[in-house]
Amino acid sequence: MTVSLAYEDKGTATGVPLLLVHGHPFDHTMWDPQIEAFAPHRRVVAPDLRGYGASPVVPGITPLAAFAADLEALLDELGLESVILAGLSMGGQIAMECYDRFGDRIRGLVLADTFAEPETPEGRRTRNAMADRLLREGMRGYADEVLHKMVAPYADPDVQAHVHRMMTATPPEGAAAALRGRAERPDYRPLLARVTVPALVVVGEDDEYTPVPVAETLHALLPDSTLHVVKDAAHMPNLERPEEFNAALAAFLDRIPG
Q1: Which of 34, 42, 79, 184 has the fewest Cβ atoms surrounding its Cβ within 10 A?
Q2: In whole angstroms, what is the distance from residue 252 CA to residue 198 CA?
Q3: Is the pTM of this model over 0.85?
């Protein structure tokens, strides 16, 4: 069953709308620099995924297919026949699932700091153990531990504070459900080899979660893709180096007709 999502919807109807899918454990405000930059020129929709931000929390297990179904229902609700779809980290994996589910509505695909491989047995155990921990302890300890992997230690203090605030505000039940769902994700590599729309792969040069070679693998799999490595950034280059990220995204959007 789909969930009605909270979302920000800004900008004009000129050009193909841009749908921005946040990562874990964040909310739609991680895309603030992109909303500000692109809403003057096109419609930009940035939802809170189920379990995050102002959207409903559904405890248990949230597979990536459930996130994708929610987004498809949102497109129907907003009357959007097609979009350019961008996702970062978990949001990138959701974007891949969306392409599998309703690829005919996607005119361009942006995959930032993400990967396509299925979970390993060890990774499955780790994600489920972390889900248990978040339910038991809450988000703050986890947020403190991973902040400087999400964004580099040298990132702007305001960016660090924003990222930490998003993480600590996330409901543990939503974060845990997403972790359990990601532990069961499929292998998206065969899907990427069949993508027929232009794609942009972006990665922070200092990303420890999805290092540059991982992004190079995505780039090699996609038939029509551009790879952009953002220097002086870790896992969230859209926040850490928004000007460079936005420039790469703008150049990509210019390639999409309509």
Answers
A1: 79
A2: 8
A3: yes
